[in-house]
Amino acid sequence: FLAFIETLPEEFIFQVFRADAGSVYRAKETRDFLKSKGIACQYACVESPHQISIAERNHGVLLSTMRAIMALFHAPVEFWAAALKYSAVLNNNMASKYKSNDTAHIPWLTVGMAYAAQLLHPFGCFCILHKTKHQVIDGKTSVRGVYGVYLGIGLAEGVKDIRAITNEGKIEHSAFFTCQDNYF
């Protein structure tokens, strides 16, 4: 959370930070950091979601999208976190509001991050992760393609990649892959 706040451009720094009374937001480290930036903290009362309605609305959209994705792809309940992360990526890449001059507001573009459209595929589609010769036991004869199921965009060692669960049940990252968008 704190790392995200530090990456925001100056025009996105706000005067008041509103959150629920969760331990992450109430932590001394968080409060000290926000105070050092001149940001006041306000916490919602227990069982009072109307006090932080914008965040709660966003959670509603993300959770509804997550449930739809999981139902569409018959994903087991263990994949709820991956589906939720995928929902957030979709939400950040889609136009959420239109300004008066008919331009779309796309959150991802607002913070100046590069859009990685080539990494966005349907959740649950079939993919093959391509291994380099240094990632396998024998670079000449070892199988270098690992079957998997696409779970979303990832980031490994500063490189944008995809996350997939392999046929061995491990979640792996790969920048070298092939996805079959119409095969589930």
Based on the model shown, name its key terms.
184 residues, alpha+beta, two-stranded parallel ribbon, 6 helices, 9 strands, elongated
- What percent of the residues sit in helical stretches (DSSP H or I)? 25-40%
The count of β-strands is 9
Radius of gyration: 20 Å
Largest sheet: 5 strands, antiparallel
Mean pLDDT: 79
Tertiary shape: elongated
Strand content: 15-25%
Instruction: Spell the H/E element sequence.
Output: HEHHEHHEEHEEEEE
Give the helix/strand class: alpha+beta
Strand order of the largest sheet: 8-7-6-5-9
Number of helices: 6
Uncertain parts = none
Distance between the termini: 34 Å
TL;DR of this structure?
The chain is 31% helix and 24% strand. It has 184 residues and is α+β, with helices and mostly antiparallel strands. The model has no long low-confidence stretch (mean pLDDT 79).
Topology:
Blueprint: H1 2-7, E1 16-19, H2 23-26, H3 28-36, E2 40-43, H4 53-72, H5 80-93, E3 97-98, E4 104-105, H6 107-110, E5 126-130, E6 145-156, E7 159-166, E8 171-174, E9 177-180
Parallel strand pairs: 1-2
Antiparallel strand pairs: 3-4, 5-6, 5-9, 6-7, 7-8
Descriptive overview:
The chain has 184 residues and is α+β, with helices and mostly antiparallel strands. It is 31% helix and 24% strand. It has 6 helices and 9 strands, in the order αβααβααββαβββββ. A 5-stranded antiparallel β-sheet has the order 8-7-6-5-9. The longest helix is centred in the middle third of the chain and has 20 residues, at 53-72. The radius of gyration is 20 Å and the shape is elongated.
